[in-house]
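User: My notes are a mess, but here's the protein and zinc ion's SMILES. Can you give me a structure?
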Amino acid sequence: MNIKNKLQTYQDIFGTDNWNAHFSSGFNSRVFGSTLVQTVPGYYGGHRQEGWWLADEMIRKGQIYCTEPFPHNGCHGLAFTYGGTWACNQCNRDHIEKPWWNIKVFKDGGQFCVVGEGFTDLQESDNFAFGSTKEEALTAYFAKMA
Ligand SMILES: [Zn+2]
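Assistant: No problem, the inputs look usable. Here's the predicted complex:
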């Protein structure tokens, strides 16, 4: 595996040996922030779903980055990916994503830590936040970065 401190696709991490289009597509959908239902609408099973689950597991373990659709411009509508960008039907906007939406969440001692892309350490970086739960860490990160 080739893990870096930025958002990476299946191919970035695992290369193209044993590459499966459906599996890597499902994996990348999770990395880019799509839910399981958005990734495999109306159909469960198969390589696409397995790829989604592998990425979800690596994200939950704090191993890789993913895109987290945070609230945008004061709107709490549910944003979704559309044509390579993020859109929202509640405020009718697109291209609402921010570079700091790409995050990694991991446990650090008894706390959860959220870091943005390019994070190196607590001394040199300022794109991080802590919380006693994952949700608290995400809220603190949002308050700091938005
Ligand atoms: Zn909106």
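The pocket of zinc ion is lined by residues 72, 75, 77, 88, 90-91, 93 (CB under 6 Å).
User: Great, I'll file this with my notes.
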